[in-house]
Amino acid sequence: MTAISPKKDKLIESKPKVWTLPQVILMLVILLFSLTCLLPFVNVAAVSFSSKSAILRGDVSFWPVEFETTAYSAIFSDPSMIHSLVFTVEITVGYTLFSMILTILMAYPLTKKRLHGRKFFNFLALFTMYFSGGTIPIYLNIKELGLLDSPWALILPGMLSTYNMIILKSFFSALPNELEEAAIIDGATDFQVLLRVYLPLSMASLATLTLFYAVGKWNSFQDALYYISTKAFQPLQLKLYHIIKGSQAVDVAAMEGGASTVATSVSESIEPATIIFATLPILVVYPFVQRYFVAGVTIGAVKG
Length: 304
Prior knowledge:
Blueprint: H1 6-13, H2 21-48, H3 52-57, H4 70-76, H5 79-107, H6 118-130, H7 135-144, H8 162-174, H9 177-185, H10 190-201, H11 203-219, H12 222-227, H13 236-256, H14 261-300
Helix pairs in contact: 2-14, 4-14, 5-8, 5-11, 8-11, 8-14, 9-10, 11-14, 13-14
């Protein structure tokens, strides 16, 4: 066996990496998509810290012009906004917890061939992905159940996602059957197999689905718009919806000369400031589970 001399070794290590044309094109495409996602958020943040006159002149792009924090002062001085933030966190946590429990309890049995009627239950789950009763029947159903104007109206409907259940079911199906057989030989029940074998091996997939549920509930406002009338039960996204409508009303009143100076000065920057206020919490949480995202979805798609 011929040994490599130190000089040749240094030449191999110092050899510059050559970028091929496909790699350059791929990097440019990735950079373009990244900028497409990032720049609108930067623009919203810049507008939220700019004055109304600068916004109306169109001077704000990706850096604040005539820096001010009036909009954020108005948001944090509003007790209802802080209450909506806390309430949204509570609803999101409760909804995600119950949704994950239901998803796990449905996905695990459907992976067992010994389950009688397994194909029928699979059909029922898939049927809901393609057909829905519609908005009015769902509203009437919630009304008959006495859930209108209740926090449970934001949690119970749509608590189980068939798409997420199929992802978790595929992940469970990809795990070796020998693990379950060994646990059963040791005297473990199905529930113990789920808790001690399947769930510890499924942390990547569980973290991914938790992120799906949490982001979906955090961003939703239509269910609150339909079912909630009490201000104490309004989530943050519905509050943002009302603020946008209110700021539009302020602009109309300003044109007619009927708006106060403070309301008029804040109206242009209150919308982007509220968007940042509503988006920032989920952006803070996302990096902690982002490393599980790709692994969870990819592994869950190994076996159908």
